Amino acid sequence: MNQSQVNGSANQSQDPSNRIIRIFDTTLRDGEQSPGATLRPEQKIVIARQLAKLGIDVIEPGFPISSPGEFAAVQQISRELQGVEIAGFARAIRGDIDAAVKATMDAARRRLHLFISSSDIHLDFQLKKSREQVVDIARQMVAYGKQFVDEIEFSAMDSSRTGREFVIEMVEAVIAEGATIINLPDTLGFALPEEYGAMFRAVRAGARGADKVQFSAHCHNDLGLAVANSLAAIAAGADQIEVTVNGIGERAGNCSLEELVMAIETRKSVVGAETGIVMGEIYETSRMVSRAMNFPIAYNKPIVGRNAFQHESGIHQDGLLKNRNTYEIMDPEAMGIPRSMIVLGKHSGRHAIKHRLSEFGIELNEEQMQDVYDRFKAKADELKIVPDDVLVRLASESTDQQHDPYVLVDLQVLAGTQRSRIASVTIRERETQEEGTFTGTGTGPLEAVIHCLQQAIPVGAEFDDLELHSLSTGEDARGEAVVSVVHDNRRYTGTAVHNDIILASAQAYVAACNQLIMSIQASGSESHKEAKSS
């Protein structure tokens, strides 16, 4: 077995026999329909730029008729992103079509995306129209749109709950009027993969003109089957899959872009397909959308979740340290995900603890290692996950010497409704054992604290991100702070847990900076050793 086979085919070169699946991103339209996920026009433009950088084939920036701000955002994205196709979304209504056509007028490549319901339950209770009336509307509106654009995507909404014969009838009608892409949505996430794939095969085989158009799949995740159904559609001949970043969207969301793309990439020899997605931009895109929409990513979310490439089990950690492929089928760094595969908790073994300490240049003898291990187990029962700064502190206690470059000695914050927040921190530096006090202000207490710490620890790192998580409830609730800083395009993360979230955030920032400093020192030490041995 060669190395690429070991990696689950994720590192194989492109196979010219594989079909290229077009990725249609509707994060800025269907994704934004998630309750609470509304974006300002300027946020949409920033995300659209990142989607283009990611290698998305088609971007659906919004619903132009819905508001002046939405129209303006679609219009600016159409003007600016000339290297990607833009879809103007519209109901099968003339006013919608006119707005979509006008908003996308300046796009280098564009399409009109029309939709109308097809299932009897939608026709009876939502549209209150007969099948004949709906087919007639679909015909007229596709013909109307065809006057303005060459590419028309037609979506028969709720196709998976519509009888096959009627889906075929509707598809034939719109193909005859000039539709070039046929989308068969699983609007309610109702279909099973074998049913969804069978629908595509039936429509492609039964609808006249189907051989002259492309087919697209749009799946929702109500039963957790959006990715599986999309893969079934690809197997049944779909040319395009509609996705959202992080799988956001109405109710349980849409087919997740990162999950679908990596399923295809990792198993492309079996799927027989590939995409044009730039893998290294996946993680940054995910983080950007999560921040803009204030939608946290679940810890166990595949691909981009915090735990997706982290391992606490001692057996897994030992295997990973010997060969990554023992317990990983994808390379997180290839997707722009920071390498942090080892998480230290109560299931971790000595091998993982020793390895992590060595990354910070800390070498222990057997007696010290046993003492650290005993302290570690006690701390793991208390904290569940032992962050790097705590591990280094345990090593300091066992060796009676300070390993942290900087220690937070004291923190004071003054807050009020009528003034700027004022903070003061006292930091002890390892080399000199001298303490220094620094003050700073900010519009919020966290900002004031960070301004203090940036003075106290002048490492030239850029403050990147702060996450706060509640670990318990009640008056004695504890919060977990996760702070990231960036230096030379590498991200360093510190974690801290405390009842006081301001103090936890400060400790996490200091931990991130210490990790940066110790990593650089350890790298320099290794380089020096290699130079001496050579």
Automatic annotation (TrEMBL):
GO terms for biological process: L-leucine biosynthetic process. It is an enzyme of class 2 (transferase). InterPro entries: 2-IPM_HCS-like (IPR050073), 2-isopropylmalate_synth_dimer (IPR013709), AIPM/Hcit_synth_CS (IPR002034), Aldolase_TIM (IPR013785), LeuA/HCS_post-cat (IPR054691), LeuA_allosteric_dom_sf (IPR036230), LeuA_bact_synth (IPR005671), PYR_CT (IPR000891). Residues 21-283 form the Pyruvate carboxyltransferase domain. Its EC number is 2.3.3.13. Keywords: Acyltransferase, Amino-acid biosynthesis, Branched-chain amino acid biosynthesis, Leucine biosynthesis, Manganese, Metal-binding, Transferase. One of its GO terms (molecular function) is 2-isopropylmalate synthase activity. The keyword Acyltransferase applies. PROSITE patterns: AIPM_HOMOCIT_SYNTH_1, AIPM_HOMOCIT_SYNTH_2, PYR_CT. Pfam families: HCS_D2, HMGL-like, LeuA_dimer. Pathway: Amino-acid biosynthesis; L-leucine biosynthesis; L-leucine from 3-methyl-2-oxobutanoate: step 1/4. Belongs to the alpha-IPM synthase/homocitrate synthase family. LeuA type 1 subfamily. This is 2-isopropylmalate synthase. It comes from Paenibacillus sacheonensis.
